[in-house]
Amino acid sequence: MPLRFGLLRALNAKVMLLAVLSAVILSNTPSQASQKLAARERILVNAMEYPWSTIGRLNAAGRAHCTGAMVSERHVLTAAHCIYDAKTGRWLAPQELHFIAGYQHDQYKIHSKIKSYKKSSRYKPKNEASARNTETDWALLELADPIGTQTGWLKLDALDRSVRSRLKTGQSRLITSGYRAGAPNAQTVDFNCQAPKKFKGNDGIAHQCFLQNGDSGSPLLLYDKSAFSIVGINVIGLSADNRGINDYVGALNALRFHPQQGKDDVKSGIGKLGFLWDKGAYPAPGSEASTSPEQTIATLLSRQGYLVGKPRNATLDTITAAENRFKKAKKIPASHTDLQLLGDLILSLK
Questions:
Q1: b or e along 104-141 (b: 16 or more beta carbons within 10 Å of the residue's beta carbon)?
Q2: What is the pLDDT of residues 249-278, one digit of tens each?
Q3: Which of 154, 180, 291, 339 has the fewest CB atoms lying closer than 10 Å?
């Protein structure tokens, strides 16, 4: 389903975006930022590799789709507007929803129907993209099957001052991944989101990633201190027009779900789910999903010139040699795991 589009009135008086955002939203012509976004390419990844295996496509009644992320062995976090059918004016029944992980080019091995879901009682689906709707646009789906043991899952994390400082110095990176309209049958990633700003007090995070329709409900990921986590849910697009490309994206801050600092609509809707903040998990041994992101590593090595030829055709020895060249050039310890190496590659991207 589409990211909800909003104008300045969708943000309250405490908006803390860059001054350029006002010009972008109110302009009638494509902005320089949007032209850069349109030209920027999202990278195809192997959806059966962690952490991408934790992200899946949410099919809604066979008519639309969104993106969601595993946050426990049975729970998926997404946007509330993804489970509302605007054409019929009703909330979809759980049996009309289907979550597919590891989905790539019509191939999928890990999936589950939805047993039930929780959402904010304050979310009004018929309203326009307003500040109140944006801050309550969340849904927590309970799956019929515990597929998180196969996919792994991600914990929620706070985008606090220390993390923001590391983002500015290039020690951390914001990432988005999902099933956008331009590539609905494949998971693609933007590894280079810009430093975030706040909106609606602390409830929202405005960032500049390349997102399109279909990315609704996708996680705003953080790579920090050798780990991946979720710091927001992408719910609203802020754009100059309806080209389907967002100049800025509004993400619901994961802090809304914090056991102590969380908002009332979350506590009344789903209680204090401390497990959301406890820890993530890798795919279990024997799972169809892999804990080693080999294909993504090869792709990023190729993008940075360390691997010659097409990554998919590269032999293990060729990839290993390219990894060693990268580690030597960047002075990376040989002891780094594959996931740490993926993080090193992400942080080294321009």
A1: beeebebbbebeebbbbebbebeeebbbbbbbbbbbbb
A2: 788 999 989 888 888 888 888 876 778 888
A3: 291
Q: What is the token pair recorded at 282?
A: 């890798």
Q: From CA 210, how far away is CA 97, in angstroms rounded?
A: 26
- CA nearest 338: which of 295, 285, 306, 275? 295
Evaluate whether 132 touches 4 at the Cβ level (below 8 Å): no
First to last CA, the chain: 31
Which tokens in the block code for residue 118? 């929780």
Strand extents, DSSP E, the chain: 4-5, 43-44, 55-60, 64-70, 75-78, 84-85, 90-91, 97-101, 110-119, 139-143, 173-178, 188-190, 197-199, 204-207, 219-224, 227-238, 248-253
**Where would I find the H helices in the chain?**
19-26, 32-39, 131-135, 148-151, 161-168, 264-270, 275-278, 294-303, 316-330, 338-348
Find the farthest-apart pair of alpha carbons in the chain and give their distance in angstroms, rounded: 58
Please answer whether residues 298 and 311 qualify as being in contact, where contact means their C-beta atoms are separated by less than 8 angstroms: yes
Angle formed by the axes of helices 316-330 and 294-303, to 10°? 60
**Residue 185 CB contacts under 8 Å (≥ 6 apart), including other chains:** 103, 104, 105, 106, 179
Distance (Å, whole) CA 179 – CA 216: 9
What is the pTM (predicted TM-score) of this model?
0.87
